Task: inverse folding
């Protein structure tokens, strides 16, 4: 049996992953969990998400499906913040995953879907499901059930004791830096070196104490054992689509639509410029279309790279399109345009720079009286290498594949 859950929390508290962690404990007497629970991130542009648009799927080998469904329903009723304005829980349980469910996941991670689409598919498959209020959570719950993860990473999440929810988290920063030192690059996004910040713990009132992300469960364990913190109530290792670029579609600039995330190819057509607030914009174009690309203030040191771009540079850019603007997550600088500057010509006799002979009258050497018609141009060195650049860990989207996962020589990971 595969169980999917979504939309149980609100800005005020709780968390779908915590609910799933409690449910896993309650299901233990009723069957055996197969594989790791899946923490599935869906379209980061979904309009009603609370934070990171997460949904959960659990796979259970059980001969008591009726009791499993009852326990799941009771747990969702008990641990959802039903008073939340935008909390609309959904719960789905199926015996097997169909191709249509897999397609639904692919769409939920890249498009914006309607609740009706989820209901129709659930009905046509005869899948057991329950929902509360508007039932929007059925979208995420069904997508989590259908989630195939051809590429995946892990996250080990520790949850707080209930009595501490809402209070500041007690985590010794030094131990977190040490955990990163010992386990990076097999773990990532624990700290942000460039911005000197610990980034593996939320600041909200939810039950998560911290989460360690990475490619290797034993490295996650090693990092976990370094952390000195308040006591944790429980911990769960998830398999996840985080850090895989599952949300990115390859497209042509002219095809890019709002609320979707893309990889686009083109040339810088308008030099980067910063506006008040520190946001940096430039235009990217191909033969038939152009789009504004943005590195917003929270992307911090990434903006320094963006400011070095120049018209004519050939790029691939990745990010989400909102209000017609691509919010950059990373770029691949494929080719750097020559940057040149006009200067006065050199006198062929004495080797000194000539001077202007007056408007429209070319150049002349005062000493030798030689003349030249036009200025010459010098190629300026570029303070930028080709290759991949990304936003720092403090600004990373959950789904964005960090460059530390790339084996390419020309990746410049932000750490
Ligand atoms: P948290 O990360 O803290 O669990 P959240 O950010 O996951 O919270 P939810 O409370 O789960 O936010 O709300 C997201 C809502 O958006 C859910 O109802 C989910 O079903 C729905 N949703 C997810 N993906 C899509 C999509 N592609 N199109 C439309 N709705 C979606």
Result:
């Amino acid at each position: 049996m595969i169980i999917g859950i979504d939309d149980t929390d609100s800005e005020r508290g709780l968390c779908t992953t915590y609910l799933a962690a409690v449910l896993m404990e309650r299901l233990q007497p009723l069957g055996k969990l197969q594989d790791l629970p899946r923490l599935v991130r869906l379209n980061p542009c979904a309009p009603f998400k609370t934070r990171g648009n997460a949904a959960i799927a659990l796979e259970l080998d059980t001969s008591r499906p009726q009791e499993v469904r009852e326990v799941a329903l009771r747990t969702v009723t008990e641990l959802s913040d039903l008073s939340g304005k935008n909390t609309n829980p959904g719960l789905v349980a199926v015996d097997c995953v169909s191709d249509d469910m897999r397609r639904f996941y692919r769409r939920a991670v890249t498009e914006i879907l309607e609740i009706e689409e989820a209901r129709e598919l659930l009905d046509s498959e005869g899948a057991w499901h329950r929902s509360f209020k508007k039932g929007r959570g059925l979208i995420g719950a069904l997508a989590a059930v259908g989630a195939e993860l051809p590429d995946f990473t892990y996250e080990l999440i520790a949850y707080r004791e209930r009595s501490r929810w809402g209070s500041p988290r007690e985590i010794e920063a030094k131990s977190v830096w040490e955990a990163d030192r010992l386990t990076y690059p097999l773990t990532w996004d624990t700290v942000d070196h460039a911005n000197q910040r610990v980034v593996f713990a939320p600041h909200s009132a939810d039950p998560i104490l911290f989460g360690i992300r990475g490619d290797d469960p034993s490295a996650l364990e090693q990092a976990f054992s370094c952390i000195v913190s308040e006591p944790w109530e429980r911990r769960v290792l998830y398999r996840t689509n985080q850090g895989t670029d599952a949300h990115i579609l390859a497209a042509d600039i002219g095809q890019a639509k709002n609320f979707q995330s893309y990889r686009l190819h083109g040339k810088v057509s308008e030099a980067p410029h910063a506006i008040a607030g520190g946001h940096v914009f430039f235009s990217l174009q191909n033969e038939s279309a152009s789009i504004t690309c943005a590195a917003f203030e929270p992307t911090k040191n990434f903006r320094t790279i963006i400011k070095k771009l120049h018209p004519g540079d050939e790029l691939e850019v990745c990010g989400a399109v909102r209000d017609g603007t691509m919010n950059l997550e990373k770029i691949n600088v494929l080719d750097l345009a020559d940057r040149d500057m006009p200067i006065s010509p050199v006198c062929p006799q004495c080797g000194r720079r000539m001077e202007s002979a007056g408007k429209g009258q070319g150049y002349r050497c005062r000493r030798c009286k030689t003349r030249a018609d036009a200025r010459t141009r010098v190629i300026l060195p570029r303070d930028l290498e080709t290759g991949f650049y990304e936003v720092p860990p403090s600004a990373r989207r959950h789904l964005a594949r960090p460059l530390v996962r790339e084996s390419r020589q020309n990746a410049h990971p932000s750490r």
